[in-house]
Amino acid sequence: MAAQQGMPTSTLRGLEEALGMGMTVSGDTNEAVAAEGAYYLEQVTITEASEDDYEYEEIPDDNFSIPEGEEDLAKAIQMVQEQATDTQILEQKTVLSSKHAVPEAIEDFLCNFLIKMGMTRTLDCFQSEWYELLQKGVTELRDVGNVPDVYSQNMLLENENKNLKKELKHCKQAADKAREDLLKTQKERDFHRMHHKRTVQEKNKLINDLKGLKLHYASYEPTIRVLHEKHHTLLKQKMLTSLERDKAVGQIYGLQETLKHMEIGHSSHAPEIRVAPNCEKENAPEGPTQKGLREAREQNKRKTKMKVNKKDSEFPTDMQPNPNLSLCKENICPAKFDYKLNNILRLHELPVSCIVVHPHKDILVSCGEDRVWKVVGLPRGNVLLTGLGHTDWLSDCCFHPSGNKLATASGDTTVKLWDLFKGTCISTFEGHTHAVWSCTWHSCGDFVASSSLDTTSKIWDVNSERCRYTLYGHTDSVNSIEFFPYSNILLTGSADKTLSVWDARTGKCEQSLYGHMHSINDATFTPRGHMIASCDACGVTKLWDFRKLLPIVSIDVGPSPGNEVNFNSSGTIESWVHG
Q1: Which residues contact 32 (CB under 8 A, 6 or more apart)?
Q2: Cα separation of 12 and 109, whole Å?
Q3: Which stretch of DSSP H or E encloses residue 301?
Q4: At a CB cut-off of 8 Å and minimum separation 6, what does 557 contact?
Q5: Which of 31, 48, 347, 472 is the most exposed place for a label (fewest CB within 10 A)?
Q6: How far apart are CA 550 and CA 366, in angstroms?
Q7: Helical (H) or strand (E) element with 14
Q8: How far apart are the first and last CA of the chain?
Q9: How is the beta sheet containing 531-536 ordered, strand by strand?
Q10: Which residues contact 131 (CB under 8 A, 6 or more apart)?
Q11: Entry pTM
């Protein structure tokens, strides 16, 4: 019995030495044996604070009452019993059976400890010797005992401590990251605050400038009113002067006729002085007023003769076949493009509104909002010619089929024709009441068509310099116009969301195409003329079958507006320009 009782004690001592909780392994066997009797286990009960020691405040139930008019003894007794049962249930303590914790055996604890410390060779030696003793019967498992709760609690506390350290490390990292984010957010807040202050300052400055400009313009109103009055006074004086001039001219003309009659009468009686009065009249000094009148009459006579001599052009009846019909049709596969920026041409001081390439030469014409058009040579970009004459921005231009003339449309409500060899304006067409958006040449070169903000389009005769037809039908601005290749058919696109096909010989609308939901900015034919492409203010591009006058496909590349649409020379590739 003594041997059996000493076995657990020696085992516990070895456990304490392995954990480092008892004596240190110093190799002094006598001191270890002497100290062996000083270790003992004592069972200590740790009492936890019970909830019964806490005094709860009792809340009286005053809500219990029997309704008047329903005083029934049986019901009252039943309600009292139910209340008593509820009180007993609340007073009872619900005791949950604790799960029986199986203590860990000493040999398992030692094995786990050696594995945890990485002492594999010691583990192998321990297991071989331990199982050898078990097989020989020297040691029994029931005599070994279990690991005391203190050691198990120490191990659990150590693991929990490690987990807490890891969590603390993660929390520190999260705190550092949150600190960095906070600093970054504070910097962004300071930046936005500063930007807001600067914006407010600029806003206040603009408000002050606007107030100053309003006062400045208000000071101009009296001056403008005085100038208007002076202008009206001068117009009245001019009118009176012109009336007096006309009256004086009539009197002079009457005197001249009287002199002629008198000279004729004198010549019958005195033929020898027949030439003298005529010589005196020819040699008489001519005043500035008479000279101006004579020049004006001669100029009006010349203009009248020129207008009488100019005849209206005839629309061609036998048009030549479209040479683009013989273009290659079998190249259906889309070509691969590798475009690269070659040069940047800075030609205008204000935005560029139109660029057109010459039909035969390596030159192009650019129009801008600075009222100037320029002819540029390619690929160097040298300016060959500059055109001045419009009083407002230019919106469009178009080459004559021969390439020798240029037509320009402007916001000053006019269309001008230019001779590219001389660089001079040869004709000015006036008739629109608002800005002209677009212009196009007939393939014969004798007619120019223009579209305007005044909801109309006009066909101009180049030879007689007059408007042949005004096309009415659109209800909003006509933004684009183009002649069908080698024919007398016109295509217009309008802000009323419609396309219209016109006969230029009669000026009548033959067909209208509906399908766009927004203002149409541009429309064009393919070189072969079998399709129409149009784009609107929301970036929707549509292809139409011109023979059937039906839509083929719709391409939405919005929300930016499509300002211009065009085809390549073969008509197989379409491109559009967005604003």
Answers
A1: 13, 23
A2: 12
A3: helix 288-309
A4: 539, 540, 541, 576, 578
A5: 48
A6: 34
A7: helix 2-19
A8: 106
A9: 520-525, 531-536, 540-545, 550-556
A10: none
A11: 0.48
Task: Write down the H helix ranges in 137-287.
Answer: 141-144, 149-269, 276-283
Q: Residue 28 corresponds to which amino acid?
A: D
The answer for residues whose C-beta is within 8 angstroms of residue 197's C-beta and 6 or more apart is none
- The torsion angle over the Cα atoms of residues 414, 420, 422 and 428, rounded to 10 degrees, is -10
Give the chain's radius of gyration (CA, Å).
55
pLDDT at 302 (0 to 100)? 58
Token pair for residue 522? 């541009």
Structure tokens belonging to residue 545? 């079958």
Query: Which position has the token pair 């089929």?
Result: 401
For 463, other C-beta atoms within 10 Å of its C-beta total 13
Angle between helices 106-117 and 2-19 (to 10 degrees): 20
- The pLDDT tens digits for 359-389 are 888 899 999 999 999 999 988 888 999 999 9
* Strand, helix or coil for residue 100: coil
- Which residues, in sequence order, are CB contacts of 479 under 8 Å at separation 6+? 437, 438, 451, 493, 494, 495, 519, 520, 521, 522
**Structure tokens belonging to residue 226:** 């005085």
* Separation of alpha carbons 265 and 252, rounded Å: 20
Q: Is 138 helix (H, G, I), strand (E, B) or coil?
A: coil
Q: What are the tokens at 244?
A: 């007096």
Distance CA 404, CA 305 (A): 27
How many Cβ atoms are within 10 Å of 317's Cβ, its own excluded?
A: 7
Mapping DSSP to helix (H, G, I), strand (E, B) and coil, where does residue 440 land?
strand
Q: Write the DSSP string, 219-245.
A: HHHHHHHHHHHHHHHHHHHHHHHHHHH
